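Rather than argue in generalities, we reproduce a single protein record, letters for residues, whole numbers for local backbone shapes, just as it appears below:
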Amino acid sequence: MDTPGFDPGNEQRTFLEIARGIDTIRTFTRVAGILYLTCINQPRFDDFDRKLVRFILALCGDAYIPHLTFVTTFWTAASKGQQDRFMCQLRSLRLNWQDESGDQQLNLYQHGRAYTAGEDTGHFLDWFDSRPQIAQHVKDMIARRYGGQTRLRNRIPAPRIVQELTVDTPIHDTEAGKLLMMLPTGSGSAWPAGSNRNRETEPTLQDTDSIDDSPPPDRGRRPREARTDTTVDPQHEPEPREPAWVSWLPVARDGIFWLMKNVDFNLIGGGPRPGGQRVAMGNAYNDRLSNTLLDPNSSVDVMKSFGLDFSRNGRLRYAQAHGIPGDPFSAPWGDAVREDVIKR
């Protein structure tokens, strides 16, 4: 299930889409887990980030926190200094997440780092040369935390939002809806009883600029992070490109919920319920990359997203054809190629 991405000012509308999607599928699938993805190269943690973490916790409920995983991405680092900055950023994120969660025990996973027996070794993996290894690590993580039919059917509670929708709680009265300061419709109910939800029954959208912890209207948008896909695939593009682990993800025929800060919020589902998808920001080329785990600062990934030949020879031919000077394959030359692709 693919949904819009979270950005400052669109939280209420995005939540409505999320809730509508969950309500549509909740009778025949379960949410086995929630993954919250954020870019490690995003240094700031502001009011919008804090509100989004609180939103996730409100959506889950305390009993579901053990099935929530905070995932950091974009661990590609060009130097030891950049690695050190990323490690400092991870420590800061961990403290901020713990602070917003009331010091509850949180699950973390670093997508792009080496793992041994399920433990993060701290070793950075090359995003291109080590893709099979990175893919295997995330498979192993999902299997450890979310795998196993017996475990899924007997031990995982429903997230709070599923419980609320099951008893026809008006969307503005759900914990997540109250956090976002949703307003009821004139009829007194966000949705009618039953499962046939539609846009005509949406609650009123309040001006989010009036919410205390919303960023100011002129706040710049940050680079988009990777987004997720529909159905059982954790990635989505206008022309889908499957990640290495895409065919493996339907763990025990149940679902995993992917949420990413300013990235699409998707539900990956499948399989019967017993007795019954992530967040992004940016400009045009970041929008193109927002459904993937591609790096918007990489000339290779940007060319790949535009369907261009991103091999060494392909990049060299592109530079020659468009008159891009410089030392081939140097950092400044790569930046010039990337910027030219984006500009065109």
User: Anything to note?
Assistant: The chain has two domains: 11-284, 298-343. The two ends are 32 Å apart (CA to CA). The chain has eleven helices and seven strands.
